[in-house]
Amino acid sequence: MSDRFHIDTKKSDVLVIGAGGAGARAALAAAMAGAAVTLVSRSPLGQGGLTPSGNGGYHAAMWPGDSPEIHAEDLISMGCYLNDPDLVYTMTSEAPMRAKELAEFGAKVNFNIPPKPAEPQMRFPRSLFCPGREILRTLNGKLRGMSNVTILENHLATRLLVSKGRVVGAVTLGLSDGTIRVCTAKTVVLAAGSLGELYPLTSQEPMGVPTGSTGTGYAMAAWAGAELVDMEEIQFAITPARGPNRGMRCLPWAKMVNAKGEEFVTPGEGPYSDIVARDVWREISEGRGPVIMDLRGELRDTSRKMDPVTELRGKILDDMEAMPWQKPVEVGIGSLYCMGGVRINKDTQTSLPGLFAAGEVSGNVHGGRRVSGNAFPEMIVFGARAGEAASKEALAMLSVPEADQDQVNSEVDYLNTLVEGSKTGSVDHREIRKEVRDIMYKDAHMFRNETDLTAGLQRIDEVKAMLPKLACGQGLIYNLDLVGCIDARAMVTTAGAVLTAALARKESRGAHYRTDYPELSTEVNHTVLRSMDDGWDVRLVPVSPARR
Amino acid sequence: MTYATLEVFRQDASLGIAPHFDIFKVPLDEKDKTTVLEALEYILMNLDSSLGFRRYCCGLQSCNSCLMEIDGKAAPACHTLVEGGRTTRVKPLEGKVARDLIVDK
């Protein structure tokens, strides 16, 4: 009865998966180098992913006396020495130049750095400012005007294509036209964003609505055979736990009480403190919640000048009467950022020939802790470098490699089976999503230990066994049920990677906190994962020494 | 427990579903309000997984992804509140309906 998907093909020099800041910047760099570029975007351009909600803090060493070296040292010390020094120095060296480039493209970049460092551990003020939506407006405007760029909006990449050990493209699903496109390319840039939605509360679902941060990029890279690094390093933050402002980050941090009305925050800790976030999680996870922030009757400090995006966010919360000065706000701990990801070198090459990665999906820039204001330079510097490196390699190749037809057929069959699956399938993707989020909440949240992680992995295996029975409702056009099934498959893989890496890191470093190994280990190792037929191959690889 | 009622426009030409409205009851926490967008997310995840809408929020009321006609006026679903005991009617904006509340440009 139901139709099957139409099949189409698309050949290009460079295929870019993901149209947030990193993907858009990569596409622009590749197109400016003369490559024929295809950019795949899950949503209409500028209306998806996390970049549009980015405040705009962009750290660059431009203050008198500061230098890329000092910036890098600050980040590596804050990252608990887990950062790849090569990546950090590359980012801090290029951050000023890449910000100027953005301004030349027409973005309104504020180069007037506020004189106070963003965090006390930073030795210099570094906050340039350009909101995410301004970056996307600029990059997308340029991309739309280029004849060598094809933009596939409302397209979901579902699997990378590998032929003779090389990534040669991806299968994409057009949500608006019900067409599966076999997109082959000489090189592929993966810029598919984060995994925040693996957790039930996340700042990657502003106002409780998903942004598509389901970890598809990590999963696609893993299925293709690329290495993932330090997947256990996930940053968490305090956010409102309920109501229309759930997941939004615009709260003062102090004055919290548990269910008994007791204050519990470690004295002397400042905003953004991991210690305060851990204090909150301890109360909640040990059953002393809910944690309430209640500032009614307190004087509200309006003197501190905020950036315009943070001010806007505050105003929205005010309008909804959701600020702790207006009513008590229940807070929780949400996932915020994944420091780990697809393992890259400074030219954004992954461990797989033909595959490059940039932005949050890539790993190792921030080590154990992402300092605020440093996600944007990562996105722009490595986005640009990915586009440059991928186009350089592509333009030196004579022809676009052929896809392995068996692999294409198997993915096409899989997608067709999902929409026809009401006949045989019995599992709803919402059950899988709920289960994965429950596992991550119970077993891989802020405090971890061997017993929980092992139990979590066991449960992930059980969920994995349910995947072949996934079924969704009818329809080839904008079938969110189908999107949910495709995401569910990726969530299971990516959750498995986080649990496996967390089990392998037998120490507490950065955001990764093991109650059974609370100390730092003397050796500093990366966890490096590769997906095998029967699970994950896990290696511990020493961090390369700092360059100077 | 109070409920907000939503009358949601439905149509999918590709499946032969003619334009009509479906009525959903979304539970509200008594203390909290919900936005139209979050109510739609609740419907999708709990009541009807076949619903089509632009399932995205930038959290800054600036991306216009969730613009739709709410009680007769074009408004962003992410900052229009629904309330207990009241009925809110949501329709897609003018244009060719791809599925339910989604209009293709």
UniProtKB/TrEMBL annotation, chain B:
Query: Which domain of life, per UniProt?
Result: Bacteria
One GO MF annotation is: electron transfer activity
- The name this protein carries in UniProt is Succinate dehydogenase/fumarate reductase N-terminal domain-containing protein
Similarity-based family: Belongs to the succinate dehydrogenase/fumarate reductase iron-sulfur protein family.
Taxonomy, top ranks, is: Bacteria, Pseudomonadati, Caldisericota/Cryosericota group, Candidatus Cryosericota, Candidatus Cryosericia
| Any one biological process term the GO annotation gives | aerobic respiration
Q: Where is the Succinate dehydogenase/fumarate reductase N-terminal domain?
A: 5-105
Q: Signal peptide position in this chain?
A: none
Q: Per the entry, which co-factors are needed?
A: [3Fe-4S] cluster; [2Fe-2S] cluster
The record's listing under InterPro entries reads: 2Fe-2S_ferredoxin-like_sf, Beta-grasp_dom_sf, SDH/FRD_Iron-Sulfur, Succ_DH/fum_Rdtase_N
Fetch the Pfam families from UniProt.
Answer: Fer2_3 (PF13085)
